[in-house]
């Protein structure tokens, strides 16, 4: 059924879907009836625990409409904690780090590493730093698969992936 399929999948997108409710509720939304211990464990694995503890009301802090009281990186880490708590075997990351500053991306990237362990993960990304460590990268162009392989293999081919990588990472070196 559609419901049983949805139970097998956790999704983290670039647009953090959060509710005007507490941090606790927003994390627990991934698994209704979860214990506070499980929620705290998910928050720690998502590198969200420390900033949550800094709020006067901690997990009982209301985050505002669309998480308005949180930074972009904090919102993403709450969503990652939700996905960790759900513990689904399949994970979809859709541009999960695309709108973050460098520091936030570092924390979110660490949290994503915890989230991806032991799961089948589909990563949709334009930032190649997000996918460089993937076992298998599939490069699409105009809706068609144009290359596939690991990072090293795709770099050796010097095809589309190589060109995209060069544009993203070498242009930064030329500007310094």
Automatic annotation (TrEMBL):
InterPro entries with a match to the protein in the record: ABC_transporter-like_ATP-bd (IPR003439), ABC_transporter-like_CS (IPR017871), P-loop_NTPase (IPR027417), Type_1_exporter (IPR039421)
GO BP annotations listed: oligopeptide export from mitochondrion
GO CC term, one of those recorded: mitochondrial inner membrane
Pfam family, one: ABC_tran
Residues annotated as domain ABC transporter: 2-167
Gene Ontology molecular function: any one: ATP hydrolysis activity
Database matches in PROSITE patterns: ABC_TRANSPORTER_1, ABC_TRANSPORTER_2
Name this polypeptide is given: ABC transporter domain-containing protein
